[in-house]
Amino acid sequence: MKIALIFLVLIAMVVLGLPFSVAGDSSLTGAVQSFISYGLATTGLLLGMLTIFMSRSVSDELTGRQIFLLVSKPIPRWEYVVGKWLGITLLNASFLVCAGATVYGMVHYIKRTHPPIDPQFDAAELNNEVLVARHAGKAHLPDFTEDAEVEFQKNLEEGRYADQPKFDAKIEKKRLAQKYEAKWRVVGPGDSRIFEFENILCDRSPTNTIQLRYKAEISQYPPDEIYRSAWLFGDRYKGTPVHQVARRDMQGRYHTIRVPADAVAADHTLLVRFYNYNPYQAEVSWPNVIEFRASDPVEVLFTVGTFEGNLFRLLVIMLCKLGFLAAVAVLTVTVFSFPVACLTSFTVYALAGVRSFLLESLDLASVNNAGIFSSVKEFVVQSLMLIFRGIYWVVPDFGRYDAVEDLVNGRNVSLVWVLQAITELALLKTVIILGLAILFFHRREVAEVSV
Amino acid sequence: MSDQAIPVVQTAGLCKTFRDFWRRPRVEAVKDLNLEIRPGEIFGLLGPNGSGKTTTIKMLLGLLYPTRGRISVFGQAPTDVSVKARIGFLPEESYLYRFLVAHETLDFYGRLFRLPSRIRRDRSDRLLDMVGLQHEARRRVGEYSKGMARRIGLAQALINDPEFLILDEPTSGLDPIGARQIKDVIRSLGRKGKTILLSSHILADVEDVCDRVTILYGGQQRAAGDIAELLQQRDVTQITTPSLTEETIEQVRDLIRRLEKKDIVGVSHPRVKLEDFFLRIVEEAQAANVRTHGARKGGEIPDFLGKPTDVAGEVVATLVEAARKFEPIAPNEPPRRDKAPSREVIESLLGLQQSATRPEAAAGSTVDEQSRRPSRAQVQPQPEQRRERAAADRNVIDALLGESDKKANGKMNAEADEKSGSS
What we know:
The complex is a heterodimer. Chain A is α+β, with helices and mostly antiparallel strands. Chain A is built from 14 helices and 11 strands. Chain B has helices spanning 53-60, 81-84, 102-112, 117-130, 146-158, 176-191, 203-209, 227-231, 246-260, 274-287, 311-323, 343-350, 359-366, 383-422; strands at 9-19, 25-37, 42-46, 68-73, 87-90, 164-168, 195-200, 212-217, 220-226. In chain B, the strands form 2 sheets. Chain B has a 6-stranded mixed beta sheet, with helices on both faces. In chain B, helix 3 crosses helix 4 (117-130), helix 4 (117-130) crosses helix 5 (146-158) and helix 12 packs antiparallel against helix 14. The longest helix of chain B is centred in the C-terminal third of the chain and has 40 residues, at 383-422.
């Protein structure tokens, strides 16, 4: 119990102390984002450690032999294992509730006490960018497969692939489609581009607003690194008003434009036109090629929920992760001594954090080294791959369930995401691990040599 | 097969071999053990350190699994949860949670038996009183002395009113008062029909309380049987009388020489046991109210022990007790009917109609110590003894039934006459 109290104090120190120590980017939004990000990440890490250490109670009962009196009572062994897991998980849940409430309270404390640069703007930016749950609609790209097919047929007729013995038509068509898409993403001087969005399920009243978030790169940098452009929101053919916005934007940075939500059509589509020309006639502008890269998608953000709801869903996802970790800790401690169990659990925790990265590197290793290694080495590599693929299957990808960034950016932590976490982490993998723990503990002799 | 007929514990060819990390056999803790513990007996498991006593107990509790052989408790596998509900276990050392106080400890173990909270509270109070720890009930168990820990350990073993009590070295670490109290408790529980397995290497304890024993050595059974039979010295006769003069002793010596052609081996004044002397001194100190922070004199055995395990019944009994405070709506007692006991029924129960008593009953009545339970392996009474006993039993029945018996017999005869007349 002392260890739980120590961790509670640590979490309290982190959550209560961070607002006074994190610098952020001096803006109110930056300070709140830094606090939420560091606060929740540290809380998650500390609770992960606490989960592993709390499994010590099983180890203590085995070494201290209190287990003799428990197992000799009418308590099925599965109940003991599940009880231990439930105890750790409930402790985590209570700590998460405390941490969540403290984070929420401290966010409002920072909002009230942070030295303002522009009081009205700061508060509005915080409310619109962070303390909100927004859904992001991605732009619907045109279909380039037809263009790719035409060019492919033309190249084929011209015999351009005749000198390629390992030629794959599918890969080539994909490459051509990517080429057309890249071309589409580049907007030349005086040119325009249309972005179509679907399923913008927001309140369409003119008092409500939606946000367009984008980032662009330019071909040649003016001295101030600013490019000028114009955006039109709305579709006259669908009876919506059209809102014009003239912009001076810094290249390579994300920008947000807020426009009335009545630009969204009744069928929940939104038409956005981008014009690469200088709407500020009095200002000199360099003719530039503007590129919207695939890695920085143009998005329309609209409010679907509250920050409070978002925080709650994030805590549920965190609890699912901790529940899985608790099952791993209980499993390892029923099989190994506490130091070994502790090390194993920490390894699984770390693997879950870098799972996607690990798999990528392993895949690359297997492809690149296939022809270089000798057969023995290849065998070793393939064996390792097999082991890691087994681990890959059992260990979940915690990175996939990292919702802190979304919360910090005011993105909606969707219910579907939460349900995925519950299904994969809690219902499937936790149950599998707990099942293994029950199996091991059922077969285990809890007493030892005493002659 | 009825529950009474099933041995509480039965093992056949039981073996336990401990293996090392590489699965190589390292220690043969128990070898080919055949054990049978019958309902209602106090069974002693004796042996020096490392003889396999505790290993056997651990297998009975499902803490260890046998390497070979069969083991059953109440006819079930020891791992069966329903079996564990009928067992109380006092381990060789205190394996209780150090951070809990005595009350919390008993409450916790009561919860594991799913006892209702009110019953847990009630039993905790009474058990703490029984083991003499009521005044230390709010202290953490970790602060208890070894003897006090043994006492609270015994209390936790009894919280579920077990049918089968396994006591591993129950008196180790206890002072003579505590040891005597524990032995008294064991004897009382035995009288209340509990089956008790007592493992110890303190031979005096086992001798004092057990009906039957098994002696283990090197994991093997070396001797087994009724304790009275095993310890009886058939070639020596001891006569105990009040103090005799030298002349009388000489006369007795002459008489024995003349009649038996043997000499007296020794004549002495017997000493009291040190245990009895010690306890007398302590009782005198207690009577003088000398202050102590240790364990005190234990109370009576709680009456819930020994009754059939019926939690619902206890709840009903408590409700009835509570309801007595109020005025009854209907009369408490129904009108008495003249229902006399039947001589035939009593005689048939006692086996007098066949003019033979059951061996158990006969053996039970010959045991002189009130505390010792009747043994099932006693020698069958001689025909002369049987006749005497049957006559004695008839006298007792006559005295008990008295006039009512005569009345009832008369009534029954009249009814029989009436029936025969009408037919």
